[in-house]
Write the structure tokens for this entry.
Amino acid sequence: MMFQTLITLFVLCGIELGFAYLAISLKQEK
């Protein structure tokens, strides 16, 4: 159970970091 929770947290953090990276990249292009 605990291991699955950690994986879920890592996945959610990765998704948020991905969106933040995309937003920064788009802002730098313009």
